Amino acid sequence: MMKLDGVAAFFATVEAGSISAASRRLGLAKSVVSERLAELERTLGATLIQRSTRKLTLTNSGQTFLPRAQRLLREAEEASAELAASSGKLAGPLRLSAPVGFGILHLTPALTSFLRGHPEIEVSLELDDSFVDAATGGFDAVLRHGAIGDGRLIARRLATSRRLLVAAPEYLERAGRPASLAELEYHAGILYANRAGDWRFGGPSGWTVVRPRASLRVNNGLVMRDAAAAGLGIALLPTFFVHDAIANGSLVEIDCGVQAEGAELFLTYPRDHGATAKIRALAESLRTSFGDPPYWERPPRADLLEVVRAGAS
């Protein structure tokens, strides 16, 4: 009979790249992990991992078994979580991925609130500005800003965000303030490297695309914000990156008479993962923390604005 701890040892070894690393991840002795792997292979009647002094290599049988092992472990975790939820307690691991900038600015305090309410949940959070495939990346859920368009995924909407054209007062004094989309093309743009760099604006006749000259391309929104505040050019950024900077005057919103394409925040997870109790609870907690409308879309209170300006001076 196949034992789940052997499956866990196999999967951890493949993910970690070695039995030693897997033993550290599992908190077990290396000999225990090796024995569990060997017992699993005896039970299955097949060699899953080819061992050598330099590296481990999956055999054909191991490659065939790997996705099934992942599914078995995920279903065991889900079953445990559902049983815990039925008793009023959520527990166990929850692997998350999110963009770097949003994670630093907004996700940490929201996760703190979530974990205070569910102290038995163990969150592993990886911040990554590259595209993370929620269906195959090994995460329970991935937070995304923007359209999903993937039939393999379920997406739970968390919040909305506008995108605003912003620049430093110093830049606008030097280069002039654009009053139309046509004038934008003659300005220096700070562009997001992981997209084509196009700026899209909606109007009565449909979408208009603007392609400014790039003074900087970078794959991180916080760097874009800081580059704009330093006077390098104009950036098109979500309000969750710039609401504080606009409040304290280090960035100024530019109005060209049209609205930039907006976006929404989603918590996404594989369709075959199932709507686990932990993911549902996380989505509801994040919605509550961000608010409706989210706090980055609300005008700053006058008293707080005075405090921010006083600190900036």
From TrEMBL:
The question of whether DNA-binding is a record keyword is answered with yes
Which one of the record's GO molecular function terms can you name?
sequence-specific DNA binding
Q: Which superkingdom heads the taxonomic lineage of this protein's source?
A: Bacteria
Report if keyword Transcription is assigned. Answer: yes
SUPFAM superfamilies named in the record: Periplasmic binding protein-like II, Winged helix' DNA-binding domain
Domain spans labelled HTH lysR-type:
2-59
Q: Which residues form a coiled coil?
A: none
| GO biological process, alphabetically ordered | DNA-templated transcription
List UniProt keywords, sorted A-Z. Answer: DNA-binding, Transcription, Transcription regulation
Return the PANTHER family for the record: HTH-TYPE TRANSCRIPTIONAL REGULATOR, TRANSCRIPTIONAL REGULATOR-RELATED
Family indicated by similarity: Belongs to the LysR transcriptional regulatory family.
Q: What is this protein called?
A: LysR family transcriptional regulator
